[in-house]
Design brief:
By secondary structure, this protein is α/β, with parallel strands linked by helices. Helix content is 46%, strand content 12%. It has two domains: 3-111, DNAb Helicase, Chain A (Orthogonal Bundle); 188-466, 3-Layer(aba) Sandwich (Rossmann fold), CATH 3.40.50.300. It is elongated and about 90 Å long.
Amino acid sequence: MNHDDYLDEPAPSCLHSHDAEYALIGCMIHQPDLIDDTGSRLEVSDFHHPACGELYEVLRAMRAKGLEIDVVTLSDVRARLADGQSTLAVAAQLVQSTPSAANFAAYARIVKQRSVARKVIAAAHVMSQALEDGAPLEQVLAQGQQAWVALEAEGLDVSRRYRLVRDILPEAIDGIDKRFNREVALGFDTGLRDLDGFIPGICPGHMVVIAGEPGSGKTTLGLNIAERVALHSKATALVFSIEMTDVELVNRSLASVGGVQLQHISEGHSMTDGDWPGLATAVSRLDGAPLVICDDASLTLRDIRQIARTVKREHGLGLIAVDYVGLIKGEGRATPRHEQVAEISKGIKRLAKELGVPILVLAQLNRGPKQRANKRPTKSDLRESGQLEADADVVVLVHRDGESEAGQAGVTELIVDKNRHGKTGFCRVQHQGAYHRFVDLIGYMPSDEEVEMGRPFAGRQYGKGRAAA
C-alpha cells in the first residue's frame, strides 16, 4: 500500500473511522503529552487500521521510556511497519495532514465509540454461536449482560469520569441551599428518631450493613426501612429476600404497617374484629407503595445487578435491601467462601455507586459476642468476611440481651459501630415482635452496671414504644 493511501477513507462505515484514527496519531506526534491522555481510554485494539494501531503501540512504548517523539525518532525506533511501508513516510504524511491538535478529544471519542460498536457486534456473534451450540439460555444471557455492562462502561467519555472542584462547587452549594430550605433531604430517614441522630440520611451510593445474630431483628429493621422509603418518601424500594418468600415478607409488612399481630395474619382464623380495620388500612397503603420484592433463592450478584438495573429503568429506584449477604451464591471458579463474600461485598459497593442508590446489606454475626461477659457485638464480629466492614459506609449491629428483663421486654440496642459520615455510638429502640417492627423507645431504666459505665438514660418505662408517624 502506498503511503498516500493512508488518507483514503474506504467505504463509509459506522464501525470505524480511519480519518479519525489518522488525525489521532498525527496529534500525538505533534504533541506527545497527549499520549498520556489516551492511555486510560484507548488500547491498541481500539484502532481499526492496522498501521494506526501499530504506530500507537510504538508511541506509547516511547513515551513510557521517556524518549523524545517526532517523525524522525519514531522512524529510528521502528524503520518499517508490519506492511512494509516506511514509518518515516507514513508518520510525516499523518503529521502534515493534521495541522492542529485542538480537536484531539473529539478524534479520540470517535475512535473509542467505533471500537465499542465493533465489540458489541462481536459479543452478539459470540452469544448467537453459543445458543446455536446448545448452551443454556440463562448462561448465555448472564454472560451477555456482563459483556454489556463492561462495554457500556468502556464507552464512557473518560473526561466525564473526573471533574475539577470549580465544576463541583455549584452543585454542592445548590444542595446545601436546598437542604437549608428543606426542599430536599440529605437521604432517607430510618423512621427511628434516635438512630437518625447518628445517621442523618441514608444517602445515594452508600452501603449500610445491618448485622445481628439469628432472631435479633435485622430482617425486621431492614424491611422497616424499606417500607419507610416506599411509604413516606414515595421512592421505589427493592428488597431481595433470599431466605423468605415474598408472601412471608408481605405478611410482615401488613403486620408492621397495620399494627396487626403477625400470628393472626398467618393463622387467619385468629383474626379479631379489631384486626380487620388495621389490615384494611395496611392493604390500602401498601397497594399503592413502590415496594418491589424478589425472593429468588438462587441469586448471584450478577442477578442482583440485572434486576436492580431493570427496576430502575422501569420504575425508578430509591433504595435496595439485600437479606442477607451470606446467602448470595458465588460465581465463577470454586474459591473459599470468605473470598466469595469479599468479592460480593466489593461488587455491592460498586453497584451502589453505579446506580446512585443506598444499599442495605443484612449480615450475620459470628459467635464472638457469646464469649464476652456483656455479649455486645462489634463490627469485627461480622461473619465470613472482614471486607464487609471495610466496604460499608455504616455498620449497624442489632443487639438484644435475651437474658435481661429489658431484653425480654423487647428493648434492643442499635450499635452504630462504623459511620464514615457521622458519629458512632448506640441507641435503644423497642422491638415489637408481634408486629415485626421497631419503634422509638419512650423510656428506659438502665441496669446498675450501665449506670456505673456512665451511659445516658431517661425514664423508667422500658418495654413501651411509639410507632413512627
